[in-house]
Design brief:
This protein is mainly beta. About 0% of the residues lie in helices and about 45% in strands. The chain has no helices and seven strands. It has a five-stranded mixed beta sheet with strand order 2-1-5-4-3, with no helix packed on it. A two-stranded antiparallel sheet has the order 6-7. It is elongated and about 60 Å long.
């Protein structure tokens, strides 16, 4: 059985413009990265568009709102998801989209603001 594909419109958030429509065989979540025509984009938002047909709503199309980005080299697996940067730092945003407020571009390794996050057992 082949995976189901849906028309997916990719929309750049700034400047707002459509990058076109593609067929994807996976469901990108905010925080995922998408490669399109040789460029990499971070998915910021996903919207579903439904159509009423024969008394039932069916998923008709998906819109992905993206921004140009490069794939992060530093990632940490926490609570079942990947976050950017070193999650053991006090300033890490624990986000798939932004690393932290004090050093958003990284890297974490040589950051002068790095502070190890204290766990409850250390307090």
């Amino acid at each position: 059985m082949e995976p189901e594909t849906l028309p997916t419109e990719v929309i750049l958030t700034h400047p707002r413009q459509s990058l076109g429509s593609v067929q994807l065989d996976w469901m990108p979540q905010p925080g995922n990265y998408l490669d399109l025509e040789g460029k990499t984009y971070a998915v910021l938002e996903r919207r579903h568009r439904y159509q009423l047909k024969a008394g039932r709503y069916r998923l008709q199309k998906i819109a992905l709102y993206v921004q140009s980005a490069k794939r992060p080299e530093e990632k940490t697996w926490i609570e079942g998801r990947w976050v950017i940067g070193n999650a053991s730092c006090r300033y890490n945003a624990n986000s798939e989209i932004i690393r932290c407020a004090v050093n958003p571009d990284g890297p974490c390794e040589s950051c002068r603001f790095y502070e190890k996050l204290r766990t409850k057992s250390e307090e």
